[in-house]
Amino acid sequence: MEPLGESAIRASFVNCSKGEARRISLPRGLDELPWADLDFLGWRDPGAPDRGYLVAERAGELVGVTLRVPQGGPRSFTKTTMCSLCMTGHPGSGVSLLAARRVGASGREGNTVGAYMCADLACPLYVRGRKVPLMSMRYKESLSLEERLDRMRGNVDDFLDRVLQEA
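User: That's the sequence. What structure does it adopt?
Assistant: Structure tokens below.
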């Protein structure tokens, strides 16, 4: 992923108002992120632990979505759980159910799309082995690194397709 600036990130959000996008807490050290190892930019808001953000490039354009941890659901697990984007297994609360409000009228009516994702949204780093889940190990796969990255990118695209679908 090419390095992104604050204005490009804020302008990318499709499921919130411009005012909400202006108030999003961006990741600290934006200039120091490992951009070459990122297929998408994902982060959690340290001041609001129930919020997360994902920005990805699709068809040459940036698409950003706000994510929330649904209220009332379990926030931690006692077993290993797998991220639906990168297929990394995490113990405990390393995977969270995150929901994105759909775009358009559907989203204004409260419709959301959810997926179990790495709680820290660092999927590209887990797939590349740059980050290792605590007290767990990556499942051995016969896929090459490029095939695993393609699968993750496809899973992100599928998730964003569902968020962008108005009906």
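The chain has one domain: 6-164.
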